[in-house]
Write a structure and sequence with these properties.
510 residues; alpha/beta; 7-stranded mixed beta sheet; 6-stranded mixed beta sheet; 18 helices
């Protein structure tokens, strides 16, 4: 990087941080969307009780500051050269804190946490929810409004914030007291970071994060008063919802030595979608990380699902709102990590050869490993794990096609697990579609950077961003003349689905 004669370097950059489930990453991007500097640190979850998954707020805050300073230092630039900051975060992980002091009442409760599982089950079986379903079915019959249809099939999930927050209000007396005193703030990780970065001046989130909580009405584009009154959640604690591309404020000068405009906060899957340049209706993004998340761009109206796809706000920039429909499988990266811990392999990229070395005619299964026999080797076990990921991709894809009835225009894949060629090729074969793997796996970080950059005029249009998109490997479906490969895959998939059914409900509480 050349230095001008006056000694002041005028080159500007966009800074973006992604707070993921397993790591916090920060990248410094230049005009070509190339990474000029990076820093990363591990996210260490806490398990205080069985089924409880938490994050320490102080540790997360220190890690955030550390990776920002580390990335800027790695890029060899100065803080004053940073044009804007974008933030992408894991979704539905939340805490509550004292509005006056900013001190959290408890640790972050992760989206993986199961403490509210009994509450969720109880509500999903309740007469109240059945009555709501009945009333909404009638309303939909009369009005034909999609909102009524959505409400007629709604079921709660532990991944959503709703009942974990209900649990907090019930079990933490200091939180309930703060609510009564009007001194309680609720927020997902993005909201808490905004509050900390602005020294308490900003209590806000964006539409993509809000829609991922399960407490947001994506049709009305506001916190759901009906749901909050139903489960007794106080609306007073929720942050203001702003556009995804919005000037949320600036970092306090005491933190980085200079004020940096915060120009985007974004939920990680939606950010990855934006980073993949999936801006058109029918564009599909698959992220294979800790879990698999498959999203399709449904355009300017939310999708109403009856089979488990979740309608999300992808982003709102200016007056334009883009919606997504999402399906997910929870344990993609978890299965890979488990296999690594058993020394089945060391690097996910290297498992393709192991998988290809296992004969196709051996019985395969998912986590249950059904069909084991004396001839089963380490390679067979690895292949079974990798196949199960591709088969789950196929299930999500078929559900998405059936549910949305939207012609798919392109499919782009990112995330650490996508580095495995075997999974990518098998997924392409099962979809019978070409799929693209991005050269850069850090798409959530890039998406938040793109939105922040658009907000300050660093980049001008989405078309400009599309030109910057760097395509990686393309996987085309392999078609044999006799179509034997397709029938072989169909047979394997059927066996896997049978094994999956047998592996369900095998354990019952005494």
């Amino acid at each position: 990087m050349g230095t001008p004669r006056n000694g002041i370097n005028k080159e500007r950059f966009i800074l973006s941080v992604d707070v993921g489930t397993t790591s916090i990453k920060c990248h410094v991007y230049d005009k070509k969307a190339e990474i000029r500097g990076s820093s990363c640190t591990e996210v260490v979850p806490l398990y205080p009780e069985e089924g409880h998954v938490e994050l320490d707020p102080d540790t997360l805050w220190k890690s955030f500051i550390s990776v920002v300073k580390g990335a800027v230092n790695d890029a060899g630039v100065q803080m004053h050269q940073i044009e804007a900051l974008g933030i992408s975060t894991q979704r539905a992980t939340f805490t509550t804190w004292n509005r006056a002091t900013g001190v959290p009442f408890h640790n972050f409760i992760s989206w993986q946490d199961q403490r509210a599982a009994d509450l969720v089950t109880s509500w999903n079986r309740s007469c109240t929810l059945k009555a709501i379903h009945g009333v909404m079915k009638v309303l939909h019959f009369v009005t034909r409004q999609k909102r009524s249809l959505a409400a007629s099939v709604i079921v709660f999930s532990t991944q959503h914030v709703t009942f974990r927050l209900v649990w907090v209000l019930k079990h933490y007396k200091q939180v309930a007291q703060a609510v009564a005193d009007g001194n309680c703030c609720f927020g997902t990780i993005d909201t808490w970071l905004l509050f900390k970065l602005t020294k308490g001046l900003v209590h806000a989130t964006d539409y993509s994060n809000a829609s991922s909580t399960g407490i947001f009405d994506s049709y009305q584009m506001c916190w759901s008063q009906l749901l909050c009154s139903l489960v007794s959640l106080p609306l007073s604690i929720f942050p203001k919802v702003e556009n995804t591309g919005h000037e949320f404020g600036s970092t306090d000068p005491s933190i980085f030595g200079i004020s940096i405009p915060i120009m985007s906060v974004m939920a990680d899957q939606q950010a990855a979608m934006f980073g993949e340049c999936c801006y058109s209706v029918g564009d599909v993004k698959i992220t294979m990380g800790t879990g698999t998340f498959m999203d399709i761009n449904t355009g300017s109206t939310p999708h109403t699902s009856v089979n488990g796809l979740y309608p999300l706000v992808g982003w709102k920039i200016g007056k334009e709102v883009m919606y997504l429909a999402e399906g997910n499988a929870a344990d993609t990266g978890t299965a890979i990590k488990w296999a690594q811990a058993l020394d089945l392999f060391s690097d996910v990229e290297h498992t393709s050869l192991m998988a290809y070395s296992a004969p196709l005619n051996d019985p395969k299964a998912c986590a249950s490993f059904m069909g084991l026999k004396p001839s089963t080797t380490k390679s067979h076990l690895v292949r079974a794990i990798l196949e199960s990921i591709a088969f789950r991709n196929k299930q999500l894809y078929e559900t998405m096609l059936r549910e949305t009835n939207i012609p798919v225009t392109k499919i782009r894949v990112d995330g650490g697990v996508s580095s495995n060629d075997f999974i990518m090729q098998l997924t392409a074969d099962l979809f019978d579609r070409k799929i693209e793997r991005c050269r850069n796996h850090e798409m959530s970080c890039l998406g938040a950077a793109f939105v922040a950059g658009l907000g300050v005029g660093y980049w001008q249009t989405c078309n400009e961003l599309k030109k910057l998109h760097s395509a990686g490997d393309v996987f085309c479906p392999k078609r044999a003349p006799s179509d034997s490969a397709a029938s072989e895959h169909a047979h394997d998939l059927q066996r896997w689905e049978r094994a999956l059914q047998r592996s369900m409900y095998w354990y019952k509480q005494p």
